[in-house]
Amino acid sequence: MAVHGGGGGCCPPMDLFRSEPMQLLQLIIPMESAHQTLAYLGDLGLIQFKDLNAEKSPFQRTYAAQIKRCAEMARKLRFFRDQMLKAGLSPSAKSVSRADIDMDDLEVPLGELEAELIEINANGEKLLRSYNELVEYKLVLQKAGEFFHSAQNSATAQQRAFGSQQTGEESLDTPLLLEQETSTDPSKQVKLGFLAGVVPRGKSMAFERILFRATRGNVFLNQAVLEDPVIDPVSGEKVEKNVFLVFYSGERAKNKIIKICEAFGANRYSFPEDLGNQAQMVNEVSERLSELKTTIDAGLLHRGNLLQTIGEQYEQWNLLVRREKSIYHTLNMLSIDVTKKCLVAEGWSPVFATKQIQEALQRATFDSNSQVGAIFQILHTKESPPTYFQTNKFTSAFQTIVDAYGVAKYQEANPGVFTIVTFPFLFAVMFGDWGHGICLLLGTLYFILREKKLSSQKLGDITEMTFGGRYVILMMALFSIYTGLIYNEFFSVPFELFGRSAYVCRDLSCRDATTAGLIKVGDTYPLGVDPVWHGTRSELPFLNSLKMKMSILLGVAQMNLGIILSYFNAKFFRNSVNVWFQFLPQMIFLNSLFGYLSLLIIIKWCTGSKADLYHVMIYMFLSPTDDLGENELFAGQKNSSACATTAGPCCCSMDADPKAFSSKETTQRCQLYMPLQSTEDTLQSEATHDSHGHGHEEFEFSEVFVHQLIHTIEFVLGAVSNTASYLRLWALRYNNIIILIVGGIIFIFATVGVLLVMETLSAFLHALRLHWVEFQNKFYEGDGYNFLPFSFVFGDEEE
């Protein structure tokens, strides 16, 4: 847990206890090498640049035009990606190397490809719409033709049946609905027209009613159902439709019918009145459909080949555009010096990265053929640096749990180191079943063994969250198996895994095993709880007492660890006031009460005493001078209890008053910017000093005193409430046993998954609360901010 100091080492130290030492850099970069320098620094990914142009809007910055240009190219690439996804293609998964083309060479091809693809899509949509219209037209010709043929056959049959009664003036060429009055008065002859088309089946009934009402019943409507759904030419979706044929009389009726068709989304198609031309029209439409199909297939093949060509280089183009956009966005954060020949950058970097950054600057100067190299200097400031921890795929999930509460202040003790062990252990204390632990282990092993494949896939929200915490779940599963063996529970069923039980029944029938108790005849069960305890009358009193006392011991131990870490923080930051007037009083107060209780628990376990610890702790305050009698666990217990009750209140005043009086001196300790400078830019350095340094805040003793008093009261009350809070380790474990027994009987296998998930989530949340509230509030401030370096390691999400 040593703190690694400065130096220009090339490799970062793996130290989670303290964040990496950081330094504030100032880089003065010539304009001609600025782009190349930022490119190399982005590959390095170890500098977090500060925005020196915060007062300017994005449109007022120097490289706004270049960013707009990159955004337009990114839009074109997103368009290509959407088109590839629609076509069922995916960008090439080959490893992407550094792009050997620049933005100028890429911009024109992207524009040409976009224009070509848009034209292909437009032509394809027109052809597809025409094809779908012809498909509907062919169906209309077939269905309506069947109606006319059936009408013709019916008319022929009627003519033959009533041929002897007809005058011979009528023939098959006479209109079907000819009124008899027209033969006598040609001026009153009515000419019928008809419209044919298709209408969505869901609207067919309403379509028929509206037609009847609008024309007052002066239409004849015939509908035929299409067996298979057809693709609508307008929407492009498959819709179930009916073919309709409407006979009407007069132009007014025709106009009404046309408007009704438009309102209902009914597509109308021309239909020849001559029956002889109908078969010819069907053949012509079939030929046109065949031609369109060939044309559409050729267009799709050409479009597929174009998208395939784009997909082979998509990742390379996308990486180049995102790199360039990131570079120009960072260049906009730099300020231009008065000569307008250099860019001035400031940013945070780890101390170990000094040599790498200097090498990157030298390489950029050489590759850009710049006559002047970049200037590298370190600034000294009182501003709090960002927090940077070197994590790997195992420790990153545990660090995320800590960061969710608050990012560690610069170089304060990081609870993530201890969370790796304490979090899964406290979870297992509540979860404690090696059968459930095996289920968790199998589930997380699936994610771990397939992590390379799953890490490259897009997962759902819950699956992605579970995959990210796979190593946390692994530790939880392993600790759950361990505590399950200690509890001797496999899905709440005990097993004699480590030998025979030490107890036997009083008689051979064991009828009184749950009422009269058992007799110990052998050695103590070697590991965990003796399986014979389960189901006996002494199970609940024994296990409740055991787990309640164990919860107190674990809680007091973890809270002591938190207070000890506050000591390491105080020593690291050289704050002797916190050592003497915060760590020491808190340590004495906590252990004079709950540490003393923990000691009594351990002595009672070791001696087998029947002392009532409730009575001991209560009367330690109410009647400290009374004789303990059978509740005396060791010689001198009365004096020890008196010392404990006296030490606690005395420490409270030590925690409040001295810190308030010493705070004024502490607030005056600040360091200002001291940039490495030459005599010729003294004025500029003074301006820099004023802009970066923060003024001294006015000291208010009353405010500091009240704040410290509140902190002291909070710790005193919190010591009691936090200790009680650790009893959830016992209470939740007991609750889980009851749920599993009842649920197993009623639901058996149907709810095993639900119970397992609910129990896991419940134990996880309670363990999270114990770390965030009971443990971390003893030492962890968590008011820092993360180190977010300028890097070309992009995520899957769009910027």
UniProtKB/TrEMBL annotation:
The keyword Transcription regulation does not apply. Belongs to the V-ATPase 116 kDa subunit family. PANTHER family: V-TYPE PROTON ATPASE SUBUNIT A3, VACUOLAR PROTON ATPASES. It is a multi-pass membrane protein. The lineage of its organism: Eukaryota, Viridiplantae, Streptophyta, Embryophyta, Tracheophyta. This is V-type proton ATPase subunit a. It is found in: Membrane. It holds the Pfam family V_ATPase_I. It comes from the Eukaryota. Keywords: Hydrogen ion transport, Ion transport, Membrane, Transmembrane, Transmembrane helix, Transport. InterPro entries: V-ATPase_116kDa_su, V-type_ATPase_116kDa_su_euka. Its main location: membrane. The chain crosses the membrane at residues 425-449, 470-487, 580-603, 737-758. GO terms for cellular component: vacuolar proton-transporting V-type ATPase, V0 domain. The keyword Membrane applies. It comes from Actinidia rufa. Essential component of the vacuolar proton pump (V-ATPase), a multimeric enzyme that catalyzes the translocation of protons across the membranes. Required for assembly and activity of the V-ATPase. One of its GO terms (biological process) is vacuolar acidification. One of its GO terms (molecular function) is proton-transporting ATPase activity, rotational mechanism.
